[in-house]
Amino acid sequence: MTILDKTADVPGPHGPGDANTPLLEVRDLHVEFHTRDGVAKAVNGVNYSVKPGETLAVLGESGSGKSVSAQAVMGIIDMPPGKIPKGEILFKGQDMLKMSPEERRRIRGAKIAMIFQDALSALNPVLSVGYQLGEMFRVHQGLSRKEAKAKSIELMDRVRIPAAKQRVNDYPHQFSGGMRQRIMIAMALALEPDLIIADEPTTALDVTVQAQVMDLLAELQREYNMGLILITHDLGVVADVADKIAVMYAGRIVETAPVHELYARPAHPYTRGLLDSIPRLDQKGQELYAIKGLPPNLTRIPSGCAFNPRCPKADDICRTDLPVLHQVTEQGGGEIAGRGSACHFWKETIHG
Amino acid sequence: MGRYVARRLLQMIPVFIGSTFLIFSMMFALPGDPVKALFGEQHIDPVQVAQIKQNLGLDQPFMVQYWDYLTGLFQGDFGTQIASQRPVADVIADAFPVTVRLALFSFVFLVAVGIPLGVIAGLRPNTVTDRTLLFVALLLVSVPSFVLGYFAQYVFAFQLGWTEPNVQDSTNYGQLLLPAIVLAALSLAYVTRLTRTSVAENLRADYVRTAIAKGLPRHRVIGVHLVRNSMIPVVTFLGVEIGTLMAGAVVTEGVFNVQGVGRTVFQALIRREGSTVVGIVTLLVLVYLAASLIVDLLYAVLDPRIRYA
Q: Are A136 and A283 in a shared domain?
């Protein structure tokens, strides 16, 4: 397949040797927005890492900072009003926040690519999909218009768009929602990046198409051994594809866990609330659980644990002391790999 | 597409007849008459006046006069000016090229200066650059064109001596430059504001964010993805503006002594030369119609979501 051809400036997929060093490591990332109503602290000290071939799901309500942290990784936050006062974003060991704008631009699209939520508005309505796909090759690899178009057709075939050759000159509005999202995926895959960030890739699609698109994404990820950050609020989507989960609330990670651990025994009251609010067939007729209250205003985040006003377990300590991300252990003290919970009462939550 | 254009062209026929009828009836309803105007301050002999009127067919009822005019028009005869005895077609042929040149000059200035200024302001909304451009634009919109015209004459012709104060030769491009810029100044403000707003709005669009996320260089994000989407409202305005620049130059042509359409219509109105006014205004109506057709077709080029059937 010509797509797999390696060109000088774009390294191919990783070999098996470096599978354990993180591809991306985010350390103590802070992002704030300076608005007329004050400083909105969207991300307040986020840490996570992704290895090649690994899928990290970032879960949270709207306003939890999950998209903003991803946009900070991409380097597409408008500054001003946005600002990154603190933190490091290490891509293959190099801090991207210290790079020049030109160095970052070369990484965007080629090494780290992003898939957006609403493909209809995220694709340019006045340019053909072939042109928009081909742009990746023309800008990053200097291919000619003709070569780029041939590559675009291959890409469209790759994401299983029927009759790619005839449709390459069509415009985004001429495709169905699922096909448009496939084009977004094709665009992100074009230069075989090492890391893909998918920001709610299936939210705008209907349920039957959601599964197809997620399967395609997971399959391509396996094939190219890419790292994937999947941003979503849909717990159902996560269960099938993710390796590990980070749950975000008010700009912080409140719980991290390998995917099945999290579903089996959550260690944070917020995660428990999320899981309890999934409609279940065996509880038909009963009232559906909902976490009471609203997510906090990011210009006035509550002191102590940001979740305390909504938490059924909240105590005095929760209103004064900000909980750190505790290492979660078994009842006997045995370590559980990759589990953490930012709750003063994590023991009671998981074992109680 | 072809059928659409044909339908639009056919629609011009009733508009053409309607506009000639309207202007003709307005000229008919105006007080004063062209034959009396011939005599100026001299004593008017009613018999002689009646005789001339009869020769010219001006004693006929309105509908008969209009019918005569229309049938003449379809044979390519625009009528004859009463005072000068020149065929109206010749008068139009003299004045139109001058005005077309002036209008095109203005138009090029408008596009070449207004759009870039708007893009510059729109890329940095609410900065010093943006606010300065807004202020200048407001100033240009509020100053009447004759004030701007005389001011430009004073500065560039009398003080700096860069150009002649008046246009001696209406075919000389250099002399037309100053009146063209003055003519464009008012519309320049609109074009700049319109472009600025459109660019500032689209700057926040999702597809611009996608273009940045693709790692495209800034000039490409702006040139390919942002500007083209932002041009749609501006093109609408520019299309109508072609007509306005041609018809609305009466004051500017007066200030700079340009022998164009504006002056000719103005003089014909004073002398109640009905056929001259109707001929020129009808042509201007056709220019408007053609311009709006071109704009509608340009939409489809700029935005593939628009298709005409």
A: no
Interchain pair B215, A108: CB under 8 A: yes
pLDDT score recorded for residue A18: 52
Q: Is B307 on the interface with A (CB under 8 A)?
A: no
Question: In this model, does residue A5 exceed pLDDT 70?
Answer: no
* CA torsion, ordered A201, A203, A207, A209, to nearest 10 deg: -30
Within a domain: residue A263? yes
Is residue A251 within 8 A of residue A60, CB to CB? The reply is no
- Residue entry with tokens 């990783």: A14
Indicate if A261 and A222 belong to the same structural domain.
no
The two structure tokens encoding residue A78: 């408008």
Question: What is the interface pTM, i.e. ipTM, of the complex?
Answer: 0.83
B198, B207, B299: which to substitute to probe chain A, counting the most A Cβ within 10 Å?
A: B207
Q: pLDDT band at B211, cuts 50/70/90?
A: very high
Q: Give the CATH number, domain containing residue A114.
A: 3.40.50.300
Mean pLDDT, residues B262-282: 82
Nearest 5°: phi and psi at B81?
-70, 135
* Residue A205: Cβ-neighbour burial (10 angstroms; 0-12, 13-18, 19+): buried
**Class of the CATH-defined domain B92-270:** mainly alpha
Same structural domain for residues A273 and A345? yes
Tell me the chain A residues in contact with residue B224 when contact means C-beta distances shorter than 8 Å.
127, 135
Q: Is residue A2 part of a domain?
A: no
For the residues A186-191, what does the mean pLDDT come to?
Answer: 89
- Could B212 and A76 be called an inter-chain contact, meaning their C-beta atoms sit closer than 8 Å? yes
Q: Does residue A148 share a domain with residue A234? A: yes
Domain boundaries, chain B: 2-82, 92-270
Reported pTM: 0.78
